[in-house]
Amino acid sequence: MGAVSHRRSSWTSRLVEWLKTLTFYEIALGMKATLTHLLRYRPVTIQYPHEKRLLPDNYRGMLALLRYDDGTEKCVGCDLCEAACPSRVITVVSAEVPGEPIKRYAKEYYMDMTRCLFCGMCVQACPVDALAMTREYEWSVYDKRHLFLNKEQLLAIGDRNFPIREKRLELQHPNVAFFNVAFPDSPPRDAAPLRTSGTG
Ligand code: SF4
Ligand code: SF4
């Protein structure tokens, strides 16, 4: 009796499998899942460039050089960003500020953005906050030489992304003239504020 019942159930399951194959049951099941998602959920595709994603606050986009509120370049040509960069993106050509031998500035500054990882280590390394990461990301070019940026281009990126600039404090002690640091107890400095050559 048991053997007959077992044979009948095996025959039934084979018939079910055969009917499923004949009616494309698995495909219909898959299409049902697809259609359910299509009708139930909103599309997640963004129609770029007509629609753009909201970027997170800490988004790390194109790098920029910054200026103080009086137009002076913040960069003091210390090369720390160049040393910190793991991809050798940055080249700084540092020079003395004419007439002020203890002060330096970046006479030339280059970034080869084809190599950049957008890790932000250069920004962290800069002692005067002269570098910043913007939220610009639309930098596709046909010629990769256009991604080799010079100081003027990097300053222009900074100007358009950071219209509110840090106030440039009066330099109050000759030994801390490199940095924008205020020492309230130090005697006032008579000399005119530093303006590097070629800056606004
Ligand atoms: S973000 Fe990283 S890889 Fe790009 S220049 Fe700065 S340190 Fe180099
Ligand atoms: S950007 Fe900052 S770290 Fe780089 S050379 Fe200028 S001051 Fe130094």
TrEMBL record:
The keyword Transmembrane does not apply. It is found in: Cell membrane. Binds 2 [4Fe-4S] clusters per subunit. It comes from the Bacteria. It is an enzyme of class 7 (translocase). GO terms for cellular component: plasma membrane. GO terms for molecular function: 4 iron, 4 sulfur cluster binding; iron ion binding; NADH dehydrogenase (quinone) (non-electrogenic) activity; quinone binding. It comes from Nitrospira tepida. Its EC number is 7.1.1.-. This is NADH-quinone oxidoreductase subunit I. NDH-1 is composed of 14 different subunits. Subunits NuoA, H, J, K, L, M, N constitute the membrane sector of the complex. Belongs to the complex I 23 kDa subunit family. The gene is nuoI. NCBIfam families: NuoI (TIGR01971), PRK05888.1-4 (NF004538).
